Amino acid sequence: MLTLASDFGSPYPAAMRAAVRQYSDCEILDVAHDFPRQDVRTAAFWLREVLPYAPAPAVHCAVVDPGVGSDRAAVALRVGEHALIAPDNGLVVPAARRLRERMPAAGSGLRGVDPSPDGDEISAVAEPAAIEAFEIAVDDPASSTFHGRDVFAPAAALIHERGVASMETCSFLDPVDEFVDLQFPVPIERGDGADGEVLVVDGFGNAITNVPGDLLDGRDRIRVDGTAWPVADHYAAVDVGDGLVTVGSHGNVELAVNRGRGADRFEVGVGDDVAIRFS
Amino acid sequence: MLTLASDFGSPYPAAMRAAVRQYSDCEILDVAHDFPRQDVRTAAFWLREVLPYAPAPAVHCAVVDPGVGSDRAAVALRVGEHALIAPDNGLVVPAARRLRERMPAAGSGLRGVDPSPDGDEISAVAEPAAIEAFEIAVDDPASSTFHGRDVFAPAAALIHERGVASMETCSFLDPVDEFVDLQFPVPIERGDGADGEVLVVDGFGNAITNVPGDLLDGRDRIRVDGTAWPVADHYAAVDVGDGLVTVGSHGNVELAVNRGRGADRFEVGVGDDVAIRFS
Amino acid sequence: MLTLASDFGSPYPAAMRAAVRQYSDCEILDVAHDFPRQDVRTAAFWLREVLPYAPAPAVHCAVVDPGVGSDRAAVALRVGEHALIAPDNGLVVPAARRLRERMPAAGSGLRGVDPSPDGDEISAVAEPAAIEAFEIAVDDPASSTFHGRDVFAPAAALIHERGVASMETCSFLDPVDEFVDLQFPVPIERGDGADGEVLVVDGFGNAITNVPGDLLDGRDRIRVDGTAWPVADHYAAVDVGDGLVTVGSHGNVELAVNRGRGADRFEVGVGDDVAIRFS
């Protein structure tokens, strides 16, 4: 499988898909092409949440590239049976790190479903895999303003054809020791709660923080920036239009409104601090 | 074939597609993921219009789910060779009912094209099929806020692998006698016209009513809420910017503007009453 | 491969895909379904930029059709191993013309990659291919307001199954000598620059003109409508928020802003004249 993701909107991604087809008949899965324009951090968050669900082996091609045409490098990371192709700006690094963990398989909660021989987990490697890095060598890196079509998609397709395990043999890949990292801000744990930050606002208006969801364990109310809100495990647990604090599918504390936009109700946006307190 | 539909926007549907791939290599067709948020009725209308064109056998997975995480059930309906997987809120019931009818095949108007051995029809069953229902058993239904990825997509994939005819043998399906129905409002026929309602406004701004199109047979003008409009069989029959009343591809009376938005010109929105009169 | 493109938004294109599947298991590539509504020229531009990257043989189905239901014809054009199916309004003619040229393959700039036996080019035909035209015969052309699903998609699928080389044998195709042309306006070259026009504004806000990019060769500044701007080969060559003139992936002069919207900064829209001067 080859996944494609970008902030290109439409119709540029179709040219990326066509470019893949010049080299490979592999399955193409579009992750998203409407990431906020040139917002590497938000795209990196979503790639971390989605890419690990792709069954291995998989090649992931992601392009959010404010530095296109400059001298920024292009990288190919390898984690076990996954390869991640992107500009060297940190875009796929959180996803690469997440791919080192074992994750529950989708569907493992269905009665009687044991989705994998080694027990309900995907992205599974016996030992946490290292992240190996390669630089993508381009003859004339500044020759185009559309590296998605001309560099990243063909490189991903060629790596898919060669096989993730054989990336060393690709003519256009050079092993490198370093690549640009991207770390999400870490919340500060306190005895009476945590100081966190809004990482992303999703399309429903849910404000997704960087605070791990287990902070809410066993609580039915919590204070956010001084105001108390109900804690619930699903949106419909409160009346339509009411706010709540919950744990999203990403495992983080999320500020939400049942059938409304949490970011508006909690008056927060991406990058804002949030003080979460037990009382 | 497995179809996916939701109101999830982006990038959540990519995780549903990846979840399908954990269990099945089947073809995936995305119907839409931009249904109006948590608007079950509008989504149910579109699913009814689109799903019957998918060649059988097919499994359809649709998620518009205001009650996610509450104790609402999840259902799998079967109509002939089609299975429909959804929250038990009526979302796929109009589509299931439509699948019991014989429909003209796309392309049957092309000269010399006889698309099916039994004559230009699809979704064909010798006798109108019953709607059979199963409940989807989930070990811990409240464990996730993302049932699209963790429940519905894997259930649909597993049903596809097992075969629609063998749903009885799926470990996570229990036959049930009842499921939540969803009926579109029925227009009131009158001697001088009909009293109907706007069901949906599409992306072009066309206001689609619940009034059957044959009401317009043989007429060249009709009154809507007291104003007379031309009746035409295509938009370009009137000047650019002019309003008209026509029959849409769904077979219902539609209020439209050539290259404009009918809902604005006729001053109607979803759920509004419309009085259609012959004179 | 069969490509689909339209201005239908959602969910109508899913019915087109389902209609294709009634006749063919071919791969479907969605080019775009969010072209500006009924804007044939903008869609024609993007189709010209994207379709040639699809590996041959390919059938392309495009529907932007302000005249649906009127007596406008439906056409199928053939250029080498590509077929283009569309309303007879010029929509696919620029793409057909472009398909007669040899183009660099995506990926040919990757080190060590020689993508094709005859040297780094795609859409390659030994001699520029003629454009051959067929009219699509429909039994009752006015029978539907959704020709995308009922005429164009099935016709494309049936042509794909028959083979582009055998279009003559399709029951619903009649050879014709003429079809509606669509020409983009031609810039006027001058000794001191060129007088051009904005063809398209893309989703990033870049204003794409009809002026060939080689006008900028060897220049580091240029005047647009009287104001001087830096010329650069990539957006990040200027500070964030600053304007620049560059050559886009389409090869034309483009008015842009690094991480901003060029159309706003240069105060131009689709169809506006732009006077480009060397000094």
Which segments of chain A are poorly predicted (pLDDT under 50) over 5 or more consecutive residues? none
Helix share of residues of chain A? 10-25%
Distance between the termini of chain A: 48 Å
- Mean pLDDT across the residues of chain A is 91
Say what oligomer this is.
homotrimer
The helix-strand sequence of chain A is: EHEHEEEHEEEHEEEEEEEEHE
CA gyration radius of chain A, whole angstroms = 20 Å
Question: Largest sheet of chain A, described in full?
Answer: 8 strands, antiparallel
Strand content of chain A: 25-35%
Name the structural class of chain A.
alpha+beta
Number of strands of chain A: 17
How many helical stretches of chain A?
5
Describe the structure.
3 copies of one chain form a homotrimer. The first copy, chain A, contains 5 helices and 17 strands. The mean pLDDT of chain A is 91. With 279 residues, chain A is α+β, with helices and mostly antiparallel strands. In chain A, strands 10, 11, 12, 13, 14, 15, 16 and 17 form an 8-stranded antiparallel β-sheet that branches. Chain A has helices at 12-21, 40-50, 93-98, 147-162, 262-265; strands at residues 2-6, 28-32, 58-63, 74-79, 82-87, 103-104, 121-122, 132-136, 173-176, 188-190, 193-201, 207-212, 221-224, 227-230, 243-247, 252-257, 273-277. Chain A is elongated and about 60 Å long. In chain A, α1 packs parallel to α4. Chains in contact: A-B, A-C, B-C. At the A-B interface, β2 and α2 of A face α1 and α4 of B.
